[in-house]
């Protein structure tokens, strides 16, 4: 065996012959697994019999999407266009009333053009609010089935005019909100596979917001008006234990000047065939559908309102989204991180306390080599225990969450592997950092306190009490940045949500975050090696 | 053979070593004596590469300690018997040391037997008496079957049986041709055990001679002990001296 191998073997023998360290490592892995498996979270998916499964469907791009909105539509065959004027978009927060059946259930004064987000719960307690990503506008969709391909041009509650298509794509138009004083004209034009969205302040001067090719759009699509309004969520902060609050919202869009140009029909037999019938439908949500007076909105020629709730967007995990991301199963990682930090620091400070360091250095006088061997040992121990714990927690934890009716966003196998191996690597490098700090500081209490403050505390603070900005800053610069390795969720600017670390959204890319931790570890271990060589033992 | 040549070292203005020079020859037990603060421990630490001297060198068969491959096969040492991790058993303590030198568990069992620790090999070192710790320290020093040994106060805390055992062991090690350096304050023990003494004071060597020679040339003639010789030699070197209780009366 070569010289380094001997030192390595000696240091590993040292580690495994102190029962407290071995027990701590195994217990920490067990605690992390338990925290991932304990039914701390309940959901309703699949809990209320068949049909209650929360199974967001896959959009055209293969990602999980939500697709629910109020839709007044008619078929449109071949090329054509649809134009409308939006004069208002208002939103309300719906108070999810826990108190029995609403008093107005089925009462006669239900507004005629209104349909509720939740059946039998309307009108219930609600208050006006600005929901920035509430949407009203025109949509052209492959069919009324959820998660089908679409293109839409729309006004929003706070982000101006947008053109959105196929769930993940978003283009900005003119900013500003709509009102009767400043209405917005919208138009969608289909030409073959291409759909163009345009807007106008007056119905005369048109600006193209975007033009997209939707491959595989069927010859006949459903075109019409839609309104939807996403879940609302906000942080409520106490001095300790900030939480989130939120609930469903609903929006009402007011439209007029509806005009559909149907090239196929006007070219074929003008005036011969009756216009296709309009239908009101709630896509992907329960409740009374938008009413279409006389089955023909175009002939009605007047003012329509469409009220809807939901979103047409990629599904996100978190407070305003649906379900949780994979990272939830690894919520107990911090226990291992804490134990790994304490044990790895103690792996060197115990030697200083007992005076054993002198025996160690007479046996292995090459100090840099010794420190490297110690780093390999604590790193390997942390990696292996972390790998086992993370693998079990991720695999079984998902099963438990789903069993509890919680929707867990699916992740690809490479992503799951990255999360599992990444968690192990995070613990391994944190162990090396802790060893470096222990070597620098030597005194057990000081070193452990410092190491915990540097390695574990930033993560706990960022996950719990800190406001978002501070939390994100900490997760950029502190060793806790490496928790980005557990990120599986994508952040979409056009989807309202609390993209907080606690919901599994980290400010850095996975391996960039790991790089921050690795940098800290390299710095600490490098400085420790220099000092160890210089100091007398 | 261990050679120490012209070692100098200062600790924040205090001179610890002031040109320390001597050699530890194979085949004999060399006593290393001197008052507290004379530089014995510092010298041993410099020999073992734990401290760096400002000047001079300490060599093991011509090589600095830090350059030795598997140093415990060249020099066995016992500096501080209390330096043990309490939770680790005696055998496991020796096992990691053995692994660091490429030695096997069989060698561990051999030295455990040699030190009379077989019965307590699997007990935690934290519960050991000082005497047992000394034996464990000796076992560690013997692990690499080294040609040279460096033992700091090995008689400390030993019961009478242990002292006899230690004395015999040191004689036997020297008889096997090893170079044995033993620092101690117990002059009577050294008189029985050592062939040669190096007396140091204030960081340098005061006397470096065979025990027999020192005793023969002592002024008190026939009945002189090593203790008398030592006290005479170090009269001016000690840092602290209490009033002689016999005279104070």
User: What would the average pLDDT of chain A be, to the nearest integer?
Assistant: 86
Whole-angstrom Rg of chain A: 30 Å
Cα-based radius of gyration of chain B, to the nearest Å: 18 Å
* Low-confidence sequence ranges of chain A: 97-122
- The count of DSSP E runs of length 2 or more, i.e. the number of strands of chain B, is 9
Main pleated-sheet profile of chain B: 6 strands, mixed
Structural class of chain A: alpha+beta
Architecture of chain B in CATH? Answer: 3-Layer(aba) Sandwich
Taken as a percent bin, the fraction of beta residues of chain A is 15-25%
Distance between the first and last residues' Cα of chain A: 27 Å
Mean pLDDT of chain B: 91
Structural class of chain B: alpha/beta
What is the global morphology of chain B?
globular
Q: Which descriptor suits the 3D outline of chain A?
A: elongated
Low-confidence stretches of chain B: none
Count of DSSP H/I helices of chain A: 11
Q: CATH H-level name of chain B... which superfamily?
A: P-loop containing nucleotide triphosphate hydrolases
Domain ABC transporter (chain B): 2-227
Keywords (chain B): ATP-binding, Nucleotide-binding, Transport
Family (chain B): Belongs to the ABC transporter superfamily.
Protein name (chain B): ABC transporter
Description:
Chain A: Keywords: Membrane, Transmembrane, Transmembrane helix. Chain A: This is ABC transporter. Chain A: One of its GO terms (molecular function) is ABC-type transporter activity. Chain A: The chain crosses the membrane at residues 21-41, 330-350, 371-397, 417-437, 444-466, 508-532. Chain A has 537 residues and is an alpha+beta fold. Chain A has 2 domains: 3-42 and 323-534; 65-98 and 109-314, Jelly Rolls (Sandwich). Chain A contains 11 helices and 18 strands. The radius of gyration of chain A is 30 Å and the shape is elongated. Chain A starts with a helix and ends with a helix. Chain B is an alpha/beta fold. In chain B, helix 3 crosses helix 4. The A-B interface holds A 1, 3, 6-7, 9-11, 13-14, 17-20, 350-351, 354-356, 358-359, 361-366, 536-537 and B 45, 48-52, 65-66, 68-72, 77, 79-80, 82-89, 92-93, 95-97, 99-102, 140.
């Amino acid at each position: 065996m070569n010289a380094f191998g001997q030192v390595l073997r000696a240091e590993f023998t040292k580690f495994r012959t102190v029962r407290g360290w071995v027990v701590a490592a195994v217990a920490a892995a067990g605690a992390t697994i338990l925290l991932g498996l304990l039914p701390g979270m309940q959901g309703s998916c699949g809990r209320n019999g068949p049909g209650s499964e929360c199974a967001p469907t896959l959009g055209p791009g293969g990602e999980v999407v939500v697709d629910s909105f109020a839709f007044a539509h008619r078929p449109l065959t071949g090329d054509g266009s649809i134009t409308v004027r939006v004069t208002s978009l208002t939103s309300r927060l719906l108070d999810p009333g826990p108190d029995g059946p609403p008093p107005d259930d089925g009462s006669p004064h239900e507004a005629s053009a209104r349909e509720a987000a939740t059946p039998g719960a309307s009108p219930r307690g609600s208050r006006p609010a600005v929901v920035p990503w509430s949407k009203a506008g025109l949509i052209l969709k492959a069919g009324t089935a959820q998660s089908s391909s679409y293109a839409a041009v729309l006004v929003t509650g706070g982000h101006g005019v947008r053109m959105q298509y196929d769930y993940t794509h978003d283009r900005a138009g003119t900013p500003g909100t709509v009102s009767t004083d400043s209405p917005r004209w919208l138009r969608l034009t289909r030409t073959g596979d291409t759909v163009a969205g345009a807007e106008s302040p007056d119905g005369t001067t048109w600006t193209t917001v975007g033009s997209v090719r939707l491959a595989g759009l069927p010859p006949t699509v459903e075109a019409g008006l839609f309104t939807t309004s996403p879940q609302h969520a906000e942080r409520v902060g106490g001095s300790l234990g900030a939480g989130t609050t939120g609930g469903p919202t609903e929006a009402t869009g007011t439209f007029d000047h509806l005009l559909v140009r149907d090239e196929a029909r006007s070219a074929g037999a003008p005036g011969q065939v009756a216009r296709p019938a309009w239908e009101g439908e709630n896509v992907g949500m329960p409740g009374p559908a938008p009413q279409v007076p006389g089955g023909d909105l175009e002939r009605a020629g007047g003012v329509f309102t469409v009220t809807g709730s939901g979103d047409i967007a990629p599904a996100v995990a978190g407070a305003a989204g649906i379900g949780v991301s994979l990272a939830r199963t690894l919520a107990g990682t911090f226990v291992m991180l804490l134990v790994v930090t304490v044990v790895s620091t103690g792996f060197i400070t115990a030697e200083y306390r007992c005076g054993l360091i002198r025996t160690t250095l007479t046996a292995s006088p090459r100090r840099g080599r010794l420190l490297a061997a110690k780093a390999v040992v604590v790193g390997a121990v942390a990696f292996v225990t972390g790998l086992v714990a993370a693998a079990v927690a991720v695999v079984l934890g998902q099963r438990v969450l789903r069993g509890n009716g919680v929707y867990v966003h699916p992740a690809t196998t490479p992503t799951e592997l990255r999360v599992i191996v990444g968690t192990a690597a995070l613990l391994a490098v944190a162990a090396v950092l802790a060893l470096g700090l222990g070597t620098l500081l030597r005194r057990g209490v000081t070193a452990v306190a410092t190491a915990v403050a540097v390695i574990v505390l930033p993560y706990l603070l960022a996950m719990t009490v800190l406001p978002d900005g501070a939390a994100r800053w900490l997760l950029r610069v502190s060793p806790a940045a490496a928790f980005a390795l557990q990120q599986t969720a994508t952040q979409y600017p056009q989807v309202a949500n609390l993209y907080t670390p606690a919901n599994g959204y980290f400010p850095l890319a996975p391996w960039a975050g790991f790089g921050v931790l690795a940098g800290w570890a390299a710095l600490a271990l490098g400085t420790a090696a220099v000092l160890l060589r210089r100091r007398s033992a | 053979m261990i050679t120490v040549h012209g070692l100098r070292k200062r600790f924040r203005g205090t001179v610890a070593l002031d040109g320390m020079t001597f050699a530890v020859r194979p085949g004999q037990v060399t006593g290393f004596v001197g008052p507290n603060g004379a530089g014995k421990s510092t010298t041993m630490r410099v020999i073992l590469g734990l401290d760096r001297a400002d000047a001079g060198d300490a060599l093991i068969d011509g090589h600095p300690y830090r350059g030795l491959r598997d140093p415990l096969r060249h020099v066995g040492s016992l500096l501080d018997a209390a330096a043990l991790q309490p939770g680790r058993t005696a055998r496991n303590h020796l096992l990691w040391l053995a692994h660091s030198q490429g030695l096997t568990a069989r060698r561990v069992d051999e030295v455990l037997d040699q030190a009379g620790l077989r019965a307590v090999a699997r007990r935690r070192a934290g519960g050991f008496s000082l005497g047992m710790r000394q034996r464990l320290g000796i076992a560690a020093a013997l692990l690499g079957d080294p040609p040279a040994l460096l033992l700091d106060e090995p008689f400390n805390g030993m019961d009478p049986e242990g002292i006899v055992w230690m004395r015999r062991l040191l004689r036997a090690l020297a008889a096997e041709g090893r170079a044995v350096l033993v620092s101690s304050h117990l002059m009577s023990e050294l008189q029985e055990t050592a062939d040669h003494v190096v007396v140091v004071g204030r960081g340098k060597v005061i006397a470096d001679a065979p025990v027999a020679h020192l005793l023969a040339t002592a002024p008190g003639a026939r009945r002189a002990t090593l203790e008398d010789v030592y006290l005479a030699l170090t009269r001016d070197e000690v840092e602290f001296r209490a009033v002689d209780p016999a005279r104070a009366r």
